[in-house]
């Protein structure tokens, strides 16, 4: 089966509406008045399958604790459960509390789609950039890890507000020529042609390097000069014309610690992994140097009436193998989908067949490709557990998404599973 991008048509409106509600919501109280994340729930600690495949990640964590690594990055790819940055955001807080705060990590500026949310950064735009790649059909593969990019269309800017000591804007000129301006707190740190800049042009306030792809496209990494880790505003805008695409900005604290990149798209299916050009993706992953890539899809795949489990498994296996080839130093953890239900009898019948089939397919694809696997439905309590989570105030009434408190509970269980596996290694020196 040819990997297909996630469908963002009919299901998209409902998913976006739910995400918008969840992204701004705090944890609701349970029926007994207790904090929802503290009430008893079915399920339990995350069980990691094939934990030995995570050794590259655990080795980097150990080196970080010994002071031999400056930063360890987790790249968390997925659908709307990841896009809200509630699950990944809480995992970020837990891991940074243990291993050190490396910063906000990879973020998209310009409020690239409705209800875009990041736990540690405020993304905003004034109409100067448009988002390319959000459609249902296949798109130009010269896009970033989200499977999309920002393109200038006027005089406005795309910006990020966050605390950071150093930032790196990732931009691409498809033709090899195109101008971009980058500023910090209103002061321009770089402005010029990307093609010329990657040949060695830098400024006193920025470091620029990059790569030229076989297609002739230029990828530029525009790094700001190091400063104190304080709240700042980073902005990008068109400088002098030409086609340019912004693929993201990496915000770092300058201190040793963990980075957790939340890279999620509403409505995405596992096929979304195949959107970026392979050569471009290799360049981006080599630059980010993730120690762990979490792949968290399946919720939207299980809603497909035309799902063929064998084809899904084959496609997922190919996609995971390609990802491991493009990030050979990283461990990969496949996170199976959360439990899902529907108030529609027709969709419920579809899910009763597709949900276990999708989980089996992703589990098998993880095993075949050499990745670890965690069954997030099982840690919720198994089939039908989403209804219990709704009653406890930990899931939305759409029976798909969780509340903030629900996502935090899942994050706690996943992180606990990771730390237990890390501490259980014979050479481990820490405790969970």
Short description:
This protein is of the alpha+beta class. Helix content is 31%, strand content 25%. Helix 4 crosses helix 11 and helix 7 packs across helix 8.
Task: Please tag this protein with its features.
432 residues; alpha+beta; Rossmann fold; Jelly Rolls; 2 domains; six-stranded mixed β-sheet; 11 helices
Strand proportion, as a percent range, falls in 15-25%
Quote the CATH topology of the largest domain.
Rossmann fold
Amino-to-carboxy terminus distance: 41 Å
Unreliable stretches covering 5 or more consecutive residues:
1-37
Overall mean pLDDT stands at 89
Backbone structural class: alpha+beta
Widest β-sheet, arrangement of strands: 1-18-17-16-2-15
Structure description:
- By secondary structure, the protein is of the alpha+beta class.
- It folds into 2 domains: 1-102 and 256-432, SGNH hydrolase (Rossmann fold); 106-111 and 120-254, Galactose-binding domain-like (Jelly Rolls).
- Helix content is 31%, strand content 25%.
- It contains 11 helices and 18 strands.
- It has a 6-stranded mixed sheet, sandwiched between helices.
- Helix 4 crosses helix 11 (404-423) and helix 7 (309-326) packs across helix 8.
- The longest helix is centred in the C-terminal third of the chain and has 25 residues, at 345-369.
- The protein is globular, with a radius of gyration of 21 Å.
- Mean pLDDT is 89; it is low at 1-37.
